[in-house]
Amino acid sequence: MNAQMAYLLGMVLGNGEIQRNATETTITIEIPHKNLQDDEGLEVSIYVKSSLADIRNVIEPLIGNTLPITQTDRATQISFTKSNEDYTMREIVRFIGGGVHHSTMKMNDELFRISPDEKKELLRGVADVTGYIRRSNMAYGQEGCIEFILKYRGIGNL
Q1: In this predicted model, what pLDDT tens digit does every residue of 51-94 receive, in sequence order?
Q2: Which of 98, 121, 129, 133 has its CB 3.0 to 4.6 Å from that of 7, i.e. a possible disulfide?
Q3: 107 touches 119 (CB < 8 A)
Q4: What percent of the chain clears pLDDT 70, i.e. is strictly above it?
Q5: Cα–Cα distance, 143 to 158 (Å, whole number)
Q6: pLDDT tens-digit series, residues 120-139
């Protein structure tokens, strides 16, 4: 486990979907545009688009591919397909308990024993795809601080 894998797992657990066939697995992650406009009247999709470079910088080296991105008025989707034999794909499926939709995935107990930094990245991945943490959500106007709203239960001791 490393911070990049923890972040990706958080995104999958937060709002991911997995489609498997005999040879390949496709993971699709949806990043919703929670409100169409922020308090200053700017469209949220612009903020998501600006965050995609950061997301790509973390995930693309891990999966060894570029991430195709689709953006609609309501959400941005990223997806990738890899062989079922690929180590990263096998680990993702193992860590999410074999679920195929974020609502049916179960965190593997091993995720509760990862390092504190990896736990933070896991939580950051969940938050990024549920629309509560973005580069634009600066808390109290302070550089390096973010507004954070957690609406998950049973996530364990993070």
Answers
A1: 787 888 888 998 888 888 888 877 889 999 999 999 999 999 99
A2: 121
A3: no
A4: 72
A5: 24
A6: 899 888 888 876 545 454 44
